[in-house]
Design brief:
- With about 425 residues, the protein is an alpha/beta fold.
- It has three domains: about 90 residues, Glutaredoxin; about 210 residues, Rossmann fold (3-Layer(aba) Sandwich), CATH 3.40.50; about 90 residues, Ubiquitin-like (UB roll) (Roll), CATH 3.10.20.
- The protein is about 30% helix and about 15% strand.
- A six-stranded mixed β-sheet has the order 5-13-12-16-14-15, with helices on one face. Strands 2-1-3-4 form a four-stranded mixed β-sheet, with helices on one face. A four-stranded parallel β-sheet has the order 8-7-6-9, with helices on both faces.
- Strand 7, helix 12 and strand 8 form a beta-alpha-beta unit.
- The longest helix has 17 residues.
- It is globular and about 60 Å long.
Length: about 425
């Protein structure tokens, strides 16, 4: 930190303030070797205390830290060791894990109920990237028009029209523009971004390349949370694969368009899920929320025009440009077009990730896909810490979309990303 301060002519206190903002870099967290997930999905499952005791048989107390959240909400018992995440019955193999330090991949249900957009089978590299070849023969304006027709809205929760954001950045003068993927999925109960990055990595990468072509950006920044080491490795491997195939780098396919990726491994800060705090983090500043305006599309990363979107939003773009905006708009309901990935945690009889058409009744998600609750529950925690608690008796009144269908119970925007019921006391809760 002293060398950084000297090199960039800034005070030691400024560097220390920025560095110690992050969970992994704080002095009190140095020397930790194994980390227990303390996300609300694991905490409400009641698995973590016993698991911590089990870890205590193999590690001194001062070597055991905490992380939030590891994206293993579907089976809980989650912990991180030696750059790998573990969950489920892995704790019973802790002696072997400590010895070989090998990953134990998790498995979970991942299927579509309706139209498979993001859960569709990967057809192979050449077939999948044909849409890039076709798109580079069209103008950015033509592709932007398809996005407008599709009605795609941001899947991070705010539901902001994607084409409007792209158009704003595209029309802002600037020799350098950036596309930033917010892959800092920190809401406990949600692992949809993790699914895409690990199981459908090319959907995200191709979506970013196409987005870069539309807005005129040569640089794509992937800001991936450090709690997802497997996602970081999967994205690096996929990037190497498409670089080798000629779909990345300078003058892609002789089109005159150049694009490349920069992966940033985040160091633990929930606030970096907010786009302006994320931009400050990339710049090396203390990641705090910026005042708007100006908006990122005018003055974003390093004060250059920047589009920031989350993983699921960008991963929808290849389907839209391959099948047409009208096809995507025909899925869903009203202004909530397309599909949504919904994650169910270990409190359900059938936990996993389900892709549903927008407008799907929440009752279908809970009872048909999730198989109902494993134990009596009074409320569901939807959308992470900034989401809301939905009483189970209101399930029949809600649908998966962007409309505020029941303002009395859900005054904020519905965010059905990570869904897990919260076990409440036996007495009535008002």
């Amino acid at each position: 930190m002293e060398r950084l301060a000297q090199q960039f002519l800034i005070g030691d206190a400024n560097v220390y303030s920025s560095v110690t903002f992050y969970d992994f870099l704080r002095p009190e967290n140095q020397g930790k070797k194994v980390y227990v997930c303390n996300g609300s999905a694991c905490l409400t499952a009641g698995t973590q205390d016993a698991m911590t005791q089990k870890l205590g048989e193999h590690f001194p107390a001062d070597e055991i830290g905490n992380m939030c959240c590891l994206g293993r909400c579907h089976e809980n018992h989650a912990f991180n060791y030696a750059g790998n995440n573990y969950s489920g019955q892995a704790i019973e193999q802790i002696a072997a894990i400590k010895s070989d330090k090998k990953a134990r991949p998790d498995t979970y249900c991942a299927k579509a109920h309706g139209t498979p957009v993001l859960t569709a089978e990967f057809p192979g590299l050449e077939a999948f990237y044909q849409v890039l070849i076709d798109s580079l023969k069209k103008s950015p304006d033509d592709l932007l028009a398809e996005l407008k027709t599709s009605g795609l809205r941001g899947r991070g929760g705010a539901g902001f029209p994607t084409a409007f954001k792209f158009e704003s950045c595209k029309n802002t003068p600037g020799d350098i523009k950036f596309l930033v993927c917010n892959a800092d999925e920190g809401d406990p109960g949600a692992y949809s971004d993790r699914y895409i990055m690990e199981e459908r990595p090319h959907s995200l990468l191709l979506g970013m390349i196409l987005a870069g072509y539309i807005i005129g950006a040569r640089h794509g920044v992937l800001y991936i949370r450090g709690e997802y080491p497997e996602s970081i490795r999967a994205q690096r491997a996929a990037i190497a694969e498409i670089r080798q195939a000629g779909y990345l780098g300078d003058n892609i396919l002789g089109s005159g368009f150049s694009f490349d990726f920069k992966i940033i491994e985040a160091q633990g800060a929930y606030i970096c899920g907010e786009e302006t705090a994320l931009l400050s983090s990339i710049e090396g500043q203390r990641p705090e929320v910026r005042v708007r305006p100006p908006y990122p599309t005018q003055q974003g990363l390093f004060n250059q025009p920047t589009v920031v979107n989350n993983v699921e939003t960008l991963a929808c773009i290849p389907f839209i440009l391959q099948n047409g905006g009208a096809t995507y708009a025909a899925i869903g309901r009203g202004r909530s077009t397309g599909t949504k990935l919904v994650c169910l945690d270990g409190h359900f009889n059938q936990p996993g990730l389900y892709e549903v058409d927008m407008g799907t009744p929440l009752a279908t998600v809970v009872h048909e896909l999730g198989g109902g609750f494993r134990h009596p529950a009074k409320a569901m925690h939807i959308g992470g810490p900034l989401g809301g608690l939905v009483p189970v008796h209101k399930i029949d009144d809600l649908t998966v979309d962007f409309g505020v269908v029941c303002p009395k119970w859900f005054p904020a925007r519905p965010r059905l990303r990570g869904v897990h019921p919260r076990r409440l006391p036996a007495d009535p809760v008002h």
